[in-house]
């Protein structure tokens, strides 16, 4: 196999509780779901140890700061394989809190594994965790409870959910949002456990009412457009509304696709609006296809 395609999916934080700090890093308790919006990644073998990145769409990032570049270089170092030409077709909005950088890192790791026949998923999982907070989850995909600094992933039974996402033009710097949270002395929430329990019971409306994000108050101050988008979604009578990551994207959860489409047709604001659906966990690979979704199942936990 000389080339591989990978779908590196976006994510939404249905909940994001900040539960403490350790070694200067914030600890989280979060329900995350992958959605059917993805960057497409093409990897081709190289005869040397180099990884070369070509981006289509999105902004140009220096190689040393490009998440897929870092992941590819780290994979070569960790497993002693050759490098790859990695072409990324960006679809995940940049600076939205939808995990685009981590998705590309996870996609590069998953693609390199398939390209070179590396089957040690535990080692690949550890590599992802050493690079980017959300990358371990994005190797899993589906619905999971994510704790610690993002390295602890508890896969859950998948639930079909529909979301209307609004994308404000103003971005929120993640480090700045966490710093503002600390400065204001805000207390973390404990909504994740309840939301998980209700989702596992199939009670989507009640679960969606528990969706929320501890960073929303500070992100709404740093970027008022985020709060405006949140209030606009609230006015459309969804089951629940929240912000993903540190923003700037906010989303509303609806019980059906039809309700989601109805809400989108009623939105009159200035933000980009689009609909996404939760996706199931799917293992990387398949004997009869060269199109792979990022979703290594964990075998070491």
Q: What's this entry about, in short?
A:
With 301 residues, this protein is of the alpha+beta class. The protein has helices at 67-79, 100-115, 121-131, 135-140, 174-183, 192-200, 204-209, 216-222, 224-234, 257-266, and strands at residues 3-13, 15-22, 25-45, 51-56, 84-89, 143-148, 152-156, 162-167, 212-213, 240-243, 250-254, 272-277, 291-293.
Folded structure, characterized:
Strands 1, 2, 3, 4, 5, 6, 7, 9 and 13 form a nine-stranded mixed sheet that branches. The protein has two domains: 3-157, Ribosomal Protein S5, domain 2; 162-277, Alpha-Beta Plaits. It is built from ten helices and 13 strands. The longest helix is centred in the middle third of the chain and has 16 residues, at 100-115. The chain is α+β, with helices and mostly antiparallel strands. The protein is globular and about 55 Å long. Helix 1 packs parallel to helix 2 (100-115) and helix 8 packs across helix 9. 33% of the residues lie in helices and 30% in strands. It has helices at residues 67-79, 100-115, 121-131, 135-140, 174-183, 192-200, 204-209, 216-222, 224-234, 257-266, and strands at 3-13, 15-22, 25-45, 51-56, 84-89, 143-148, 152-156, 162-167, 212-213, 240-243, 250-254, 272-277, 291-293.
| C-alpha termini separation | 29 Å
- Report the CATH topology name of the largest domain: Ribosomal Protein S5, domain 2
Overall tally of structural domains: 2
Q: What is the helix fraction of residues, given as a range?
A: 25-40%
Helix and strand sequence: EEEEHEHHHEEEHHHEHHEEHEE
Global structural class: alpha+beta
